[in-house]
Amino acid sequence: MTSATEIDIRTEGVAAPANYLNINLGVRSWLLTTDHKRIGILYLWTILIFFVIASVAAALMRIELLTPQGDLVTSETYNKLFTTHGVLMVWFFLIPSIPAVLGNFVLPMMIGARDVAFPKLNLFSWYLFVAGGALTLWSLVRGGVDTGWTFYTPYSTTYANSHVISMAAGVFVAGFSSIITGMNFMTTTHKMRAPGLTWFRLPLFVWSLYATSLILVLATPVLAITLALMSVERFWGVGIFDPKLGGDPILFQHLFWFYSHPAVYIMILPGMGVISELITCFSRKRIFGYGFVAAASMAIAVLGFLVWGHHMFVSSQSIYAGMVFSVLSFLVAIPSAIKVFNWTATLHKGSVSFQTPMLYALGFIGLFTIGGMTGLFLATLAVDVHVHDSYFVIAHFHYIMVGGMVMAFMGGLHYWWPKITGRLYPEFAGKLAAMITFIGFNLTFFPQFILGYLGMPRRYHAYPPEFQVFNVLSTAGASILGIGYLLPLIYFLWSLKFGRVAGPNPWRATGLEWQTSSPPPKDNFERTPIVTDGPYAYSAEEDVDLNLASV
Amino acid sequence: MNEFHLFPPQASSAAHQIDWIYFALTALTFLICAIVFLPIVFFAIKYRRGSKADRSNPRVESLLIESGWTIVPLLIFIGLFGWGAVVYFDVERPPRDALQILVVGKQWMWKLQHAEGKQEIDELHIPLGRTVALTMTSQDVIHSFFVPAFRVKQDVVPGKYTSEWFKSTEPGEYHIFCSQYCGTQHSAMIGRVVVMEPEDYERWLNIGQPSESIARTGERLFRERGCSGCHSVNSKFHAPLLEGLYGKSAPLETGEIATVDDRYLRDSILLPGKEIAKGYQNIMPSYAGQLGEEEIMQLIAYLKSIGNQNPPNESK
Amino acid sequence: MSILTSQVSDRPAFVAEQFDDIDQQRDAAKLGMWIFLATEVLFFGGLFLAYTIYRFTYGHVFVDASRRLDVVLGGTNTAVLLVSSLLMALGVRAAQLDHRRLLVRLLLGTAFLGCVFMSIKAVEYHNDFVEHLVPGAHFEWKGPDPHNAELFFWIYFAMTGLHAIHVTVGIGILLVLALLAWRGKFSGGNYSQIEITGLYWHFIDIVWVFLFPLLYLVGHR
After folding, report:
1. CA C27/CA A493 separation, integer angstroms
2. Within a domain: residue C49?
3. Closest chain A residue to B163 measured between Cα atoms?
4. Which residues pair with C193 in a beta bridge?
């Protein structure tokens, strides 16, 4: 590929004439679209709704936790708030976020295809997602669920008085949306790459989406059957999980975590893929150790299926099983560490600039490293006995999910925004929001590590007074974090009308998606590209003075 | 107990061991963060756009470097795993000769009973320096018995017995938290452990009504609930005699061998058809729904207490 | 870097616009179906796991309960499905060779055998209902451990029920395909839909081949 700086820039500043956005107008053309780009945007709007609801739940929780007593809401309401927050954030925001929004939009373009392998199934998967979401919202409207997003039995099957089955049904349906997306991405990657685009010339975002799809396809059905079994027991009193009926409550935990641990890798792998794209583009350099980073994605997907028992070290599982899961959990940390080191090494002899996507990428590396290291505390059996089910765990997974994944999502969204909309977001506002988010995030979640080791359990509506200082700090951070998320919402909408027109390649990036107009035409490319080189063919030496300040 | 802390009190023998691992992990975290963050900052500054650093011939791969940063973390992680596993093994296996406490968790309270019979609710008084072992079960949903100051936690599961142990090293009062979400009042299912000097503990034990020991209560239940109607020498029903049985291996009708432990005895009382002893038939009625969890534990304590007796001669 | 590629003019109409040619479309369809079947393995797998665990825990009761299932009917059903898979495979061959009438007959034959399977299943379910073996309010069990016997029947109905739903969906698809085949849709190399339906049908056959011994033969030594 030619160096990105030699791309024809005559079309800079000129909006593409006929593109996928203006080719067909009207609600029907959107609701019946089979264009992967439009479907990505449909997903974007839908997950935004769930993100807002789940964030409101979090805000109420954090406000409640300002004081040791439970005085803002009743215990029952608080329990419903954290359940809502977990269910919506995990299944209706994080899991679809990068794959269904950015993956849908970018994957076919990155491999030079006109669309995914099964466009109608793609649209169907969005409708399934909406149906699942509607069922879940229906459950909320009727009063919500108070079992926690983990639905542990026998509380969920026999004792909870809330609308468990409708919420489980919502998640069940949305699960099939995930399965179809995974299946579509895998087939697309196998069968629809442009001529010359061999597997080892693929951008790492594609590798990470492939690894994610593997997990989506193999793990989600187990969740489906687990939720179905739980609902059957709740409705008919069968006795699969309730010991009073001869069942085994720990069986539920095994089945649930067999899915839900790989699920966390569904959530983080796409984010890691985005980071590989951002680090290379904004340091104008090929990734260090391409083969290792690609292999690490696959290793995480495979090893991720073997560690579910680390959620059950104190559940009455045998201590020998505990040891097996502990050592495997340490092993799964290695490929993640390899990726972090490779990204860091990529900066060496690069030509680094700090546009908003890069700020998010660097923030990701920092926060993911901290989150990942704290995962080791949890993998260590003796320490986990103390911190299991405490705020330490909450801090750990929010560092990965929010400090990691959400920042990667924001970075990717800012990076591909010009491609998706043809407009640039305002750069100063972008940088400001990134920094506010970073500060707010750390203030929210770092005190929670301390709270956790002190012994504050999770899912507590009220707590002993000596925990108050850290809770207040955390809530203060949350309000700052909220501003960090509100700003992009505002300026992205603003940019749709008033943002500068982007042109085909404002970042001077390599990658097939940048070799077409912004917004792209409906079939992505005027002519099918032919690939002759590997990805990230940047040259830092040549781009030492590349000025993207105009963006 | 209500003062501001940055770190939980170290009040058990396990706390010190676990905290050492915690500090080591914290130090490793700082080290790894430094190894990652410092180069990032350094490279970001040295190689910032427009700077005059040497960018010629950048490396994009190195098997040596990749192996290095794969193998070194792997070795460190194996070491950490081993350390954690060894301490975990210790922490999970109660030593013999521990003070036995029975615990029944239910929504939303803890019911505890000392071997001497004294009962407590949401509180556990123990003597300083003695090993204490808890045998626990739940009456309803899964709970978890967590004492941060001791660094111990174990889920309390309905339908089975779980255990945890600790040896206190500092007198004082420490939080008990339920740490497995169990419903509406989960955050109110808290209590305190009161660690007393041994003499004070003895004095405390004798306050109030004299109580019968758990094993005694079990023996009483054994008679009152009809167990001895079948499980005795003079019974006209052919049922196993239970003296000298606890802890032994029992051959079953199916040909397998079961160990007569707490779990086996509990299942035999509630699900008698599940593991029938060899040579006997499935005629024992189930006591499910007729005995509370505490009562089952008391019965088992009784059976444990006669576990060393010689079985009397059976009459056929 | 971008070069003119295939401006293929003799591209068949049944190749969807995201695909370059018929081979890519057919390959993609097959891969997609294989991946879908992998998800189905995991889906049924959860139920198989629950069955295995409780079979291990409550061995005796499960054996006794299994004896109440009709091996003759179950065995007949196994044979029915195996033959239907044969017909399906022959149908795929007929589609590849463009034998329209034969294809229609084979598709209808497979669907017919699927219906035979469902009928026999219905008879079995009816018998179970009459003998009070359906879990719920009317379940009766003379013997120790009625609760765990009921659990066996729960798992039995869940697994065979889920399987039956898949068979029903398959029958529906086969009937639609038979109609389309009669109208000539699958001529001229456009047979990948027959192929992938074949894969699906063989899969539900294989699931039954595992279900039958686990549920029916456990009690019959």
Report:
1. 41
2. yes
3. A316
4. none
B 235-264 residues with CB < 8 A to A: none
Q: Confirm whether C129 is domain-assigned.
A: yes
pTM: 0.93
Q: Return the DSSP state at B192.
A: E
ipTM value: 0.92
Nearest to A116 among C18, C53, C151 (CB): C18
Residue A530, Cβ neighbours under 10 Å: how many?
15
- Measured between CB atoms, does C141 come within 8 Å of chain B? no
Look up tokens 């999910």; give the residue. Answer: A401
Mean pLDDT value across residues A465-478: 96
In Å, how far are A204, A536, C132, C217 from C127, measured between CA atoms?
Answer: 58, 67, 9, 18
Instruction: Return the beta strands (E) in A38-83 as ranges.
Output: none
pLDDT in tens, C173-209: 999 999 999 998 888 888 999 999 999 999 999 999 9
Q: Which DSSP letter does residue A170 get? A: H
Q: What residues of B are in contact with residue C60 (Cβ under 8 Å)? A: 254, 273
H-type alpha helices, chain B:
13-46, 63-92, 198-205, 214-224, 227-230, 262-270, 293-305
Query: Neighbours of C (≥3 Cβ pairs closer than 8 A)?
Result: A, B
**CATH code (residue C114):** 1.20.120.80
How many Cα atoms occupy the beta-carbon half-sphere of C203 within 13 Å? 22
Chains A & C: contacts with CB separation below 8 Å? 124
The two tokens of residue A247 are: 């069942």
What is the span of the domain harbouring residue C81?
Answer: 24-219
Q: Give first-to-last CA distance, chain A, whole Å.
A: 23
The answer to whether residues A411 and A357 touch, using CB atoms and an 8 Å cutoff, is: yes
The answer to whether A455 contacts B177, with C-beta atoms less than 8 Å apart, is: yes
- Domains of chain B in start order, with CATH, are 8-40+63-211 (2.60.40.420), 225-305 (1.10.760.10)
C145 touches chain B (CB under 8 A): yes
Nearest to A100 by CA among A29, A150, A174, A32: A174
What residue type is assigned to position A193 of the chain?
A: R
Question: Does some domain include residue C159?
Answer: yes
Domains of chain A: 36-515 (1.20.210.10)
| Cβ A234 vs Cβ A158: under 8 Å | yes
Mean pLDDT for each consecutive 10-residue tract of chain B (316 residues)? 79 95 97 96 94 89 95 96 94 88 95 92 96 95 97 95 95 96 95 95 86 90 91 87 89 85 90 84 86 92 87 56
What are the residues facing B126 on neighbouring strands?
Answer: B195
Domain count for chain C = 1
* Axis-axis angle for helices A204-236, A290-303 (nearest 10): 10
The C-alpha atoms of residue A443 and residue A459 are separated, in whole angstroms, by 20
Structure tokens at A524: 């992505």
Contact C76, C119 (CB under 8 A): no
Q: pLDDT confidence of C128, banded at 50, 70, 90?
A: very high
If we measure between CA atoms, which residue out of A336, A217, A347 comes closest to residue A273?
Answer: A336
Q: What is the full DSSP assignment across A213-230?
A: HHHHHHHHHHHHHHHHHH
B67: which DSSP letter? H
How are beta strands B172-178 and B109-114 bridged, if at all? unpaired
Identity (one letter) of the amino acid at A353?
Answer: S
Residue C17 lies inside a defined structural domain of this protein:
no
A222 vs C45, C53, C150: nearest CB: C45
Helices A290-303 + A249-283 axis angle, to 10: 170
Q: Give yes or no for a contact between A168 and A252, defined as CB atoms under 8 angstroms apart.
A: no
- Looking at A90-163, list the stretches that DSSP marks H as alpha helix, in order from N- to C-terminal side: 95-96, 104-110, 119-141
Other CB atoms within 10 A of residue C67 CB: 12
Per-residue pLDDT tens digits for A125-139: 999 999 999 999 999
